[in-house]
Amino acid sequence: MAGRNGLFVPGPTNVPDRVLRAMVVPMEDHRSPRFPALTRDCLEGLKAVFKTSTATPFLFPSSGTGCWEAALSNCLSPGDMVLVARFGQFSHLWVDMCHRLGFEVQVLECEWGEGAPLERYEAALAADTAHRIKAVLVTHNETATGVTSDVAGVRRAMDATGHPALLFVDAVSSLASIDFRMDDWKVDVCVSGSQKGLMMPAGLGVTCVSEKALEARRRTARQPVCYFDYIDMQNQNRNGYFPYTPPLPLLYGLRESLAMLAEEGLENVFRRHAYLAGGVRAAVQQGWGLEVCAKQPQWYSDTVSAVVVPAGTDAARVIDRAFRRYNLSLGAGLSKVAGKVFRIGHLGDCNELMLMQAIGGAEMAMIDCGLPIEPGSGVAAAQRHWRAHEAEASGTT
Ligand code: PLP
């Protein structure tokens, strides 16, 4: 197909040319005296992204899923109880992993499209007077439904009950795009990956671990862990090295993407994502007369919108048409919402006119599939939104 593919899945995201160029490097000795400077630049840069001065970032050669496993295996013991809300495919997969690793899982079942149920977290913690729950898990941004949850609220629920459990947060599709605060929210492990807000290829598990969680690893945790051992990683990282061969080009790419985030300013990056998301939602709601999957505005995600197609329409056909006819990649509906939604990722290295491509292409694909959409309606609504909200667009030029 001629022209560039329009990549609007919610990860992997578009990799900026600067980052692509930074990754074209000859291989080198990862035990040379020159190497530690690269490791340190990456880890120091990540502290700013995680908003921490006290916790320790780690980079594992894995994707985000590896960091889930690292969190559970480093900090817990066989049979420990975890508390987790399930409201989409990724929170579901986290629950599934907890089961498969042998933990006792207390699941707060929610409707897909809802966010973390703060009162129910608090009630479950208050009821656990014996403190059997060792970790509270929350997915900050549920990528399957386009729902952002209030992590600070979960922390407040924990504090209100005086519960000592660790707080694990999945920030795979929020880190470096939506405000996340490791220290302020007293998060014990934050789990993320390189291929979304960090504007990189997949391949780096990006995580950050509090002193409390490291202490659990050292003193109480008995779950077997080897490849993902925080202590091995910490011991080697201290001198700028890794316990095994690191993916060198990805580290060079990460250093560049962290520099780009710092140049734009993290708060401007968040503002840009909120502003762009507003335009996408205007296209969906005002232009097309459709709805997003997130059930309430408080849960609207600034990184991904899951667009609900009218009953009787198969969203998979729209996605297929967009790809085959217009060389446009939209995100699929996963599991429970398969066929019901298509997703537009608006995170990472993107701007208004890139998103016009996604909105215009989705619009044409929907019309081709017989949906009663007025040509240009989504594009017009997004234009109106962005032109009216220019002041919020800091960092977009
Ligand atoms: N958690 C969330 C919220 C995600 O969106 C994803 C992937 O899209 C994952 C976890 C899994 O991450 P990975 O595919 O990097 O293993």
UniProtKB/TrEMBL annotation:
CDD domains: AGAT_like. It is an enzyme of class 2 (transferase). SUPFAM superfamilies: PLP-dependent transferases (SSF53383). Substrate binds at residue 343. Pfam families: Aminotran_5 (PF00266). Keywords: Aminotransferase, Pyridoxal phosphate, Transferase. The modification N6-(pyridoxal phosphate)lysine is found at residue 196. GO terms for biological process: glycine biosynthetic process, by transamination of glyoxylate. Gene3D superfamilies: Aspartate Aminotransferase, domain 1, Type I PLP-dependent aspartate aminotransferase-like (Major domain). This is Serine--glyoxylate aminotransferase. PANTHER family: ALANINE--GLYOXYLATE AMINOTRANSFERASE 1 (PTHR21152:SF24), AMINOTRANSFERASE CLASS V (PTHR21152). It comes from Piscinibacter sakaiensis (Ideonella sakaiensis).
